[in-house]
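step=encode ok
step=design start
structure_in=
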């Protein structure tokens, strides 16, 4: 299973980014092979619609789950349309959240916010 996590840098020692659409990087992690791939979030510089564009990038990368602290409605709509589950991270420590996900300890993210539209 491929999961995606918004991160601050392209390193396994980085933290999880609080802003999904404006994160600079995503970690795509394969839970079977343990392959790690960092991809640049080109949507981070968008005037608007960053969450939608970022979510579509992850859909295009064929992820099956996303782990994050919070998510806006527009990005959540993209994930829902693609049948991608969104899980709430327990803190901002990357490796701890990957382990928690693998152990089935992360809850689904249920509190979706309206987004931060027109705030660039």
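sequence_out=
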């Amino acid at each position: 299973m491929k999961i995606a996590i918004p991160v601050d840098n392209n390193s396994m020692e980085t933290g999880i980014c609080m802003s999904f659409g404006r994160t600079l990087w995503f970690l795509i992690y394969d839970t079977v092979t343990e392959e790690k791939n960092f991809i640049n979030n080109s949507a981070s510089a968008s005037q608007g619609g960053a969450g939608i564009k970022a979510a579509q990038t992850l859909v295009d990368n064929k992820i099956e789950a996303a782990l994050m602290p919070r998510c806006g409605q527009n990005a959540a709509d993209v994930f829902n349309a693609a049948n991608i589950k969104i899980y709430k991270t327990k803190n901002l420590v990357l490796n701890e959240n990957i382990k928690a996900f693998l152990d089935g300890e992360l809850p689904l993210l249920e509190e979706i916010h309206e987004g931060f539209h027109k705030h660039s």
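step=design ok
step=annotate ok -> The helical segments are 50-60, 73-81, 94-102.
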